UniProtKB/TrEMBL annotation:
This is DNA repair protein RecN. Belongs to the RecN family. Keywords: ATP-binding, Coiled coil, DNA damage, DNA repair, Nucleotide-binding. It comes from Cyclobacterium amurskyense. Residues 165-236 form a coiled coil. Residues 2-507 form the RecF/RecN/SMC N-terminal domain.
Amino acid sequence: MLTNLSITNYALIEKLEMEPCAGLNMITGETGAGKSIMLGAVGLLLGNRADSKALYDEQKKCIIEGVFNIQNYGLERFFEKEELDYESACIIRREISPSGKSRAFINDTPVRLENLKVLGKILMDVHSQNETLMLGASSYQLSLIDAFAKVSKEKEAYSIQYHAYIKTQRKVRLLEQEKQQYQQEADYNQFQLEELSSLNLEEGEQASLEAKEELLNHAEEIKSRASQALDHLENEELGAMQQLAAAKQHFQYLQKFGKNFEDLNQRFESLLIELNDILESLSLEEQEIEVDFEKSEWVRERLSKIYQLQKKHGVQSDKELLELASALADKVFKGDHLEEELANQQILLKETKEKLSATGQKLSKKRQAIFNGFSREIQSLLAKLGMENARVEILRKEVPANESGIDDIDILFSANKGIQPQPIGQVASGGEFSRLMFAIKYVMADKMALPTLIFDEIDTGISGEIALQMVRMMQEIATKHQVICISHLPQVAAKGEKHYFVYKDNSSKKTISKIKLLNPEERLLEIAKMISGSNPSTTAFENAKELLTK
């Protein structure tokens, strides 16, 4: 329920505030006074697009704020899902900067317009000329039927099956594409895999082969140098080892003359151990090195094959070649098992389609079951609104399964006796459309969660007793829902619990739209003016009193 509406710097409104009651609120005023501007501001709270051209003062920010009492609407889950602070007094705010930038807030937390639209649809239902046009749309008509039939559970079950079907259908299409692509590439992938597999490559082998090639290419030189080094060390007369052995005797003798010499002897002993180890290792290396032209040729050939494959596939290492081979093996394996996977998914698709068809038929039957009841109830209400010969029929056509089900709905309408019902948009006049729309809203008020209903001149084209009957129905709606009605009819305006008057103030340089809550005396005058003009007669005042007291 809307408890407070504040509009600042919007269109002709410099500053406007109203606090509607929980029941029936009336808004009246001359044409062009600003009533439609208020609806535009409310639309911004519900997520409509903003325009900086709508600013009253182009140098200042526009702020529109609505406070809603949502205590009894069970919206805690919505706020939790959207990660918003829940407050029973929910504040929705829109701000439009002079640059045209728009921002939306729920309880002072910035939100996207999509979030605002979702919450707005829960909090308010606005009847406008735009909605009258929407009534001709099949999707809108279907939403009315669904609300009347109370099929939320069936729609949820259908939606689950529909998305499961679409998901499986998409999987089948992808597998079919993969199968076609595999069939085109299968022989090539198999050839590449066999070529790589025949190499029996191991990770790190390339580096090892390159090291071996380096040794084999310089085997003679390496063997010669190693032999000379050994000779320099082991020569019986001039070898370094012989000289060091002689020096060892002197170090052993000196160590008895103090710790320093003892330490030097130990270091010398360590040096000799290390040198002997080097000598042994070098001797082994020299013995193992062979000038093997056959082995050298084999290493060159194997490296050549590795380099060729790397160049062919645009890679730099044996690791990347192995990764490529693994990927090709996966492709070949998947291709070999693709047929089986596709067959399984096609079976699943068939099963999912059958389940979708069953849930779609169940949803459709529940919809069709209320067609006659919906038509009778709307026709009965239209009769009360002066359209005794009105007929409403629902034409249903089965369509391929879509997000909404398997039904295409067309509500047919005829206002006159003997005239075959036709699609709504083709046959209803303005007044007839208003009454039809009101009858639908009246029925839906008990079927849907509509905390606040706004009627924008829904009494257009009617008068007299019909207008009184319509406002009585509004009063019935207002026992359970907050109703805000913009009206030009005195019969309607007189029945509100609160009466707001919108007017233009031309006292300053720029016209301003203002609104005020009328007290009993002001209200009597306004109703009298609505009856007979700006200078109401005594009779007009008497008629106004009668309307206000009935």
